Amino acid sequence: MADHELIERHLRALGDRLPGHVVEELTDGLAASYEDQLERLRDAEAAAHAAIADFGDADTVAAAFVRASPAEGSPCDCFSPARSSV
């Protein structure tokens, strides 16, 4: 995981909005973006801001997940276990 407080706060904010397995996948992408930005910018603070700007703020990322979710009904249904059709 990226070692920057801004990245960690962003991941906690995502964790408040999205299921854990989704946040785990997003963590890898955000960490990779941060590392790329750090290599390019050579400044941890600037790299963290740039990575989050590229990645999207927590509300935008969560909204995109809800829109892309195949869950039926309200957006909160996407966090519920799959329903059986039995």
List keywords for this structure.
86 residues; 4 helices; disordered C terminus; 67% helix; mainly alpha
What does this structure look like?
By secondary structure, the protein is mainly α. Helix content is 67%, strand content 0%. The chain has helices spanning 5-17, 20-41, 44-55, 58-68. It is elongated and about 40 Å long. The N and C termini lie far apart (41 Å).
Mean pLDDT: 83
Note the quaternary state here: single chain
The portion of residues assigned to helices is: 55-70%
Approximate shape: elongated
Strand content: under 5%
Uncertain residue ranges: 72-86
Number of strands: 0
Assign the structural class, choosing from mainly alpha, mainly beta, alpha/beta, alpha+beta, or little secondary structure. mainly alpha
Radius of gyration: 15 Å
Largest sheet: none
What distance lies between the first and last C-alpha atoms, to the nearest angstrom?
41 Å
Count the helices. How many?
Answer: 4
Total domain count: 1
Written as H for each helix and E for each strand, in order along the chain, the element string is HHHH
